[in-house]
Amino acid sequence: MAVLETIYQSVIDGNMNGATSGVNAALAEGIAPSEILNKGLIAAMTEVGRLFEEGEYFVPEMLIAARAMQASVAILKPKLKDADVKPLGKVVIGTVKGDLHDIGKNLVAMMLEGTGFEIIDLGTDVTPEKFVDAIKTHDAGFVGMSALLTTTMPSMKTTIEALKAAGVRERVKVMIGGAPITQEYANDIGADLYAQDGPSAARKAKQALGLA
Ligand code: B1M
Known about the structure:
Elements: H1 2-13, H2 16-28, H3 33-53, H4 59-82, E1 90-95, H5 103-115, E2 118-121, H6 128-138, E3 142-146, H7 154-165, E4 173-177, H8 183-189, E5 193-194, H9 198-208
Parallel strand pairs: 1-2, 1-3, 3-4, 4-5
Helix pairs in contact: 1-2, 1-3, 1-4, 2-4, 3-4, 4-5, 5-9, 6-7
CO-5-methoxybenzimidazolylcobamide binds near residues 101, 149 and 179.
GO molecular function: cobalamin binding; metal ion binding; methionine synthase activity
Protein name: Cobalamin B12-binding domain protein
Family: Belongs to the methylamine corrinoid protein family.
């Protein structure tokens, strides 16, 4: 269907107007919201992730593609609810306590959303208590923590300890990332997953559910 190809290409090109008008046109043509999501938007973000991993796209291209996708998802969201399309899972995500960097975290959240997860974004400077409360409130199965400062990395460990103390550690997968974070650090603090960037975060989250 030509309109799905338009949406797909517009997201890859970071053309927000092309993507959103494509979504509106597709809905007007009666194409199912789930088809627009899967064959247009998610397929495009998967391709963007591949281009990033192969070094053809850099962060700016990925950001504008993610924004085009987010604007399109915003149009689709109410229709998807009507059509009862279930998200893959709920992810509570935030930048840890003391840390105000959010560009990378937002990118990861957009990639996860593009893959089909529902995102509960707690923003920046998120205390362990806020993570715990959000997991309970939203009954989330995933927690994503981002840190960009070596001084705020220990907040990830404190948050995992708070999850254990609150009795919710066993029901969530914990993913961590950010420039100073390594797989070794994730192992040290008992996180389940480490991802280096948005595309690998989305891929690893799906793999953890046995979906990829
Ligand atoms: Co700051 N800052 N900053 N800063 N800043 C860094 C991080 C720094 C490396 C710069 C430097 O000195 N070379 C340095 C940290 C040094 C260290 O700790 N080792 C630093 C510092 C020191 C500071 C301040 C302390 C400066 C000061 O005030 N003296 C201060 C701290 C404020 C605070 O947080 N309390 C500060 C402030 C700021 C700004 C507010 C000005 C601004 C942030 C704006 C914002 O985010 N809204 C800022 C910026 C922009 C940067 C740099 C230049 C760029 C960060 C960025 O957005 N990168 C950064 C230098 C650098 O990284 N080159 C720097 C682009 C982004 C897409 O990448 O965030 O790495 P990144 O995210 C990647 C991956 O890491 C990964 O995927 C993302 C997408 O590919 N990822 C995850 C991230 N989170 C993930 C979560 C996951 C999985 C993957 O799972 C959940």
